[in-house]
């Protein structure tokens, strides 16, 4: 204890975030801030710990119990994510003499089995095609059309959709460059390892050409760059990408019957602002998961999908591939028929 330097919970969190800022994307940093915010609040409000030198293994266990029981409990996968992040945070504090050595080893995190650590919400092919057909007919080359088409056909994360510049799109070569530019506001989740060139189909290029020629607001962002997907205010915001996805994946948005038999005029999710409350709408991540699964179901090799979507093969199989075991077997059968 004599070797430790006193530090408060809020100051410790800020030092940690400043330390990780150059290592991770802004979205990951926000996630860490949110997860660790529960621990900081527990220290300040529940235990009145104003010096983290005092932290013990028992304190960490007490926090875990408090977190898992608050608001009726949290899912095991959420518990694991938050405790794993806490372990990384405590490990950092050890390096700056803020907590006892090896305290991070006392952070307990649940072991999840099988599919318990996998979220299976995704946009299926039929719904995706119905959305894109509807947009093509009624809102062709609109911003929403561009966002959904890029997410579905290229499996891009929302950050990559936002990051693309006009100059990154090459119509004649039918491709889109994905670049990590943290210094001008568009980092990629996997940083330099997320950089790649994505091949585009002729129909997607036609769509992008028409967006650029007739719909795209000709603006620059605050760094003087020309965003490919722009608004009148500049580069599209990540929240806008999410809002578009939630709004456009509601069945009522394409005049499809509501599975819950709700009246859109009276439903709380009937407005654009309330779209995320619709049980049938999905996030950008679910669109990406659905697109990856669709590519795999279409017999695109796993390594090709992994490189195009910028995700490791192991992570792809565990978190994105929603094919049934029977579907996988039948696809393998196609390659074995002539042997």
UniProtKB/TrEMBL annotation:
Keyword presence, Thylakoid: no
Superkingdom as given in the UniProt entry: Archaea
Keyword line: DNA integration, DNA recombination, DNA-binding
Boundaries of every Core-binding (CB) domain copy: 7-94
InterPro entries membership: CB, DNA_brk_join_enz, Integrase-like_cat_sf, Integrase_recombinase_N, Tyrosine_recombinase_XerCD
Any single GO BP term: DNA integration
One MF term in the entry's GO annotations: DNA binding
Protein name, UniProt field: Integrase family protein
